[in-house]
């Protein structure tokens, strides 16, 4: 499986009707792709560099994604789209709590400094993966390394989760001690462990089906 994420940032002058028409057009284009699953959704309040529309595409292979994504990206580059961030990555199986509801999909795109020691990168990845053990509202999760990146940043990692609800993401997750005492050090330039050198893309949307599999 090969996944593709696109985060569309609208021009601020775009009207409500233009935004709605754009989302409808992109949803039609996504249905025409040879995917095994997809969604196109407006982002929810609280994103950071998270754009206005979140697109998630699941392709059966990297070859299929490479064949189709250029045409799809051309659709995304409509006049009201100021720019698009995105990644492609091989999708390993997700970890889940299968009996819990999932209503919000969240993704964090980050760029780890290429000069970071291998041991530091692996410890950073390990700390991210510890979080679901402390935060029960994370009901599905997957951490992946990026195969290809588009936009203004050369992303290196994709940290995906599904949450029980929006309040859990904005409250329990962001305010949890494991977040600010263990994970934040990798993002804080005042900490010696600091490895994430550029802006992050913290974005999320409502989902009514399983996003991470």
Strand count: 10
CATH architecture: 2-Layer Sandwich
Q: Average pLDDT value?
A: 93
CATH C-level category: Alpha Beta
Radius of gyration: 17 Å
Report how far the terminal alpha carbons are from each other. Answer: 10 Å
Strand content is 25-35%
Shape: globular
Summed up, the domain count is 1
Structural class: alpha+beta
* Share of helix, binned: 25-40%
Reported by name, the CATH topology is: Alpha-Beta Plaits
Enumerate the strands of the largest sheet in spatial order, edge to edge or round the barrel: 2-3-1-4-8
Order of SSEs: EHEEHEEEHEEEHHE
Give the biggest sheet: 5 strands, antiparallel
Low-confidence segments, given as residue ranges, are none
In DSSP terms (H or I, runs of 4 or more residues), the helix count works out at: 5
Domain Stress-response A/B barrel: 104-199
InterPro entries: Dabb (IPR013097), Dimeric_a/b-barrel (IPR011008)
Organism: Rhodococcus rhodochrous J3
Pfam families: Dabb (PF07876)
Topology:
Elements: E1 2-10, H1 16-31, E2 37-42, E3 53-59, H2 62-76, E4 81-90, E5 95-96, E6 104-110, H3 118-134, E7 138-145, E8 148-150, E9 157-163, H4 166-175, H5 177-183, E10 201-206
Antiparallel strand pairs: 1-3, 1-4, 2-3, 4-8, 5-7, 6-9, 6-10, 7-9
Helix pairs in contact: 3-5
């Amino acid at each position: 499986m090969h996944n593709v994420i696109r985060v569309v940032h609208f021009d601020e002058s775009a009207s409500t009707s233009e935004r709605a028409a754009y989302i409808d057009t992109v949803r039609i284009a996504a249905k025409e792709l040879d995917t095994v699953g997809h969604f196109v959704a407006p982002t929810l309040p609280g994103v950071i560099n998270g754009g206005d529309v979140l697109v998630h595409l699941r392709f059966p292979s990297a070859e299929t994604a490479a064949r189709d994504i250029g045409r799809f990206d051309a659709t995304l580059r409509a006049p009201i789209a100021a720019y698009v961030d995105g990644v492609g990555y091989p999708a390993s199986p997700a970890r889940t709590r299968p009996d819990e509801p999932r209503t919000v999909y969240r993704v964090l795109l980050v760029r780890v400094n290429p000069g970071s020691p291998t041991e530091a990168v692996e410890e950073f990845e390990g700390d991210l993966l510890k979080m679901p053990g402390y935060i029960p509202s994370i009901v599905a999760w997957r951490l992946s390394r990026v195969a290809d990146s588009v936009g203004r940043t050369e992303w290196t990692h994709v940290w995906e989760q599904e949450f029980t609800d929006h309040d859990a993401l904005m409250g329990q997750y962001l305010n949890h001690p494991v977040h600010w005492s263990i994970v934040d050090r990798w993002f804080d330039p005042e900490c010696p462990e600091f490895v994430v050198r550029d802006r992050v893309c913290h974005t999320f949307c409502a989902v009514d089906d399983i996003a991470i599999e």
